[in-house]
Amino acid sequence: MKRKISAIVVTLGLALTLAACGDSTEDATPAGSAATSASTSSSDVDAAHNDADTEFAQMMIVHHQGAIEMADLAVEKAESEEVRSLAEGISAAQGPEIDQMTSWLEAWGEETSPMGGHDGMDHGGMDMNGMSQDAAMGHLGGQSGTEFDNNFLELMIAHHEGAVEMAQTELDNGENAEALELARKIIDDQEAEIAEMESLLQNI
Asked: Which of 124, 193, 121, 197 is nearest to 165 (CA)?
């Protein structure tokens, strides 16, 4: 009888130990998976890049910020609903692209903006019919109604043409696959928006 009782006690003890091990394994698995997922996420950015990629990202961030500044003003001041809708679309599209390019520069160990901001952009990408970003904002700020809509469209067309020029330079000289892909997208998107703005100008 004593042997039977001992055997039962041992059997119960083994069962409890195995159950505890099973719970421990189940608890550890999700944590391990999460750690693996986090590690994969942190290494998503392709580190291979050259100076052209760095300059493209830095300059395009500043360029996009300028476009958003102008677009937000148009959302407030535009008389035409079509112009207001276009401005909302520009702002919504370019914000996430700024975040994307900022993440690249941080992963590459590069500065997230060129020296001097807008003033550091020593090429035609920011020139809008002879106006700098600050001059364009001051010009638009004093206008209203149809006059504002027309001038906003004309300046934003020139601004987009600068973005296309910058993106083409990246395609010609860049190395990073993600940056090259974004450059192609910018060309496609902004050329489509230029065509839309030219059509709006004819109908205002």
From this structure: 124
Distance CA 118, CA 14 (A): 72
Say what the pTM is. Answer: 0.74
Q: Structure tokens of 137?
A: 């904002």
Q: How confident is the model over 31-54, as pLDDT tens digits?
A: 444 333 333 343 577 889 999 999
CATH fold of 46-203 reads Ferritin (1.20.1260)
Yes or no: say if 190 and 163 are a contact pair by the CB < 8 Å rule. yes
Tokens of 63: 């360029």
User: Angle 133-141/51-77 helices, nearest 10 degrees?
Assistant: 10
Name, in order, each residue with C-beta under 8 angstroms of 97's C-beta and a sequence gap of 6 or more.
60, 64, 182, 186
Give domain limits for the chain.
1-44, 46-203
Query: Residue 63 contacts by C-beta under 8 Å, 6 or more apart in sequence?
Result: 121, 125, 126, 159, 162, 163, 166
8 versus 81: which is more confidently predicted?
81
